[in-house]
Specification:
Number of helices: 14
Pathway: Porphyrin-containing compound metabolism; heme O biosynthesis; heme O from protoheme: step 1/1
GO cellular component, one term: plasma membrane
Enzyme class: transferase
Number of domains: 2
Largest sheet: none
Radius of gyration: 20 Å
CATH class of the largest domain: Mainly Alpha
Protein name: Protoheme IX farnesyltransferase
Number of strands: 0
Distance between the termini: 69 Å
CATH superfamily of the largest domain: UbiA prenyltransferase
Shape: globular
CATH architecture of the largest domain: Orthogonal Bundle
Membrane topology: Multi-pass membrane protein
Length: about 300
């Protein structure tokens, strides 16, 4: 009986450690980031078939790099994370994991991720991944307590997965990669400000300055979401204009952009967390729909 109890306790410890590492890398966020990299890779003209080995390698390499950046973020922000209800249960902030263990994981993960990208794809994609990792971990993270400009800076590593995936498949930075980068870059503003709107009190107590208005969730902040949603409309037409995808995806993306605009307008009119949640969840759906529509309607070369 005692032996069974020991085994059960061991299983619980392993399960708890796995859960902690999933929280450490922010798995849901990392998955979304790597998803955009994989779709961008598949959209590259040189990629003409679904090679599952390379897709899995790209997913793994991207997940390791992104997970490492998120780990460094949690180490640096462990004290502020402990102050916020939304993040207080993270492994480093709660004390369940020592910073030394987290640092060891971050270093091993970034090294392994860069090796996978460089060796199995090209060193251009690995270099972009390293640049993205550095900007997120060492520029965006500390700037969040200084100025709301951090959101603009953070949108760069947030959109770089598209360029990383494109470079991995195309071996160069050409128009298609920059178009995908632009879509994901401008998409982040209404998406992130909706999250900041919902968690404004927590962020303010922790000293973060993330809303476009110093007063927080105001009409001005909502107008900014509307402006960036408007910008997405012409940007969303670029894949068709540069010959990446066809007319079907053109209309799907247009409808998705109009949906984002309408959700942002509703936020301006209602000025409530409920409306901000609509923008946040709508933006998740938007990105998946747009990227998958572009892939399904990809125009083959030749």
């Amino acid at each position: 009986m005692e032996q069974v109890t020991v085994k059960q306790q061991s299983s619980l410890n392993i399960a708890g450690k796995v859960k902690d590492y999933m929280m450490l890398i922010k798995f849901s966020l990392s998955f979304m980031v790597v998803f955009s990299a994989v779709i961008s890779y598949l959209l590259a003209p040189k990629v003409v078939e679904f090679d599952w080995l390379h897709i899995i390698l790209l997913f793994t390499g991207g997940l390791l790099v992104t997970g490492s950046a998120n780990t460094v973020n949690q180490i640096v922000e462990k004290d502020t994370d402990a102050m916020m209800m939304r993040t207080s249960k993270r492994p480093v902030a709660s004390g369940r994991m020592q910073p030394a263990e987290a640092w060891a994981f971050a270093i091993i993960a970034i090294a392994a991720g860069l090796f996978i990208l460089g060796y199995f794809f090209n060193w251009l994609s690995a270099g972009l991944a390293l640049f993205s990792w550095f900007v997120y971990a060492y520029m965006y993270t500390p700037l969040k307590k200084v100025s709301a400009v951090s959101v603009l800076l953070g949108a760069v590593p947030g959109a770089l997965p598209c360029l990383i995936g494109w470079a991995a498949g195309q071996d160069e930075l050409s128009a298609g990669g920059w178009v995908l980068f632009a879509i994901q870059f401008f998409w982040q503003f209404p998406h992130f400000w909706a999250i900041a709107w919902i968690s404004h009190k927590d962020y303010t107590n922790a000293g973060f300055k993330l809303m476009p208005s110093v007063e927080g969730p105001t009409k001005y902040s909502a107008i900014q979401s509307i402006i960036y949603s408007l910008v997405l409309i012409p940007v969303g037409m670029l894949p068709y204009l540069v010959g990446m995808s066809g007319m079907i995806s053109f209309y799907i993306v247009l409808v998705a952009n109009l949906m984002m605009l309408w959700l942002s307008i509703r936020l301006y009119r209602e000025m409530e967390k409920k409306a901000a949640r609509r923008v946040m969840f709508g933006s998740y759906i938007y990105l998946a729909v747009v990227l998958l529509a572009l892939l399904m309607d990809k125009i083959p070369v030749g």
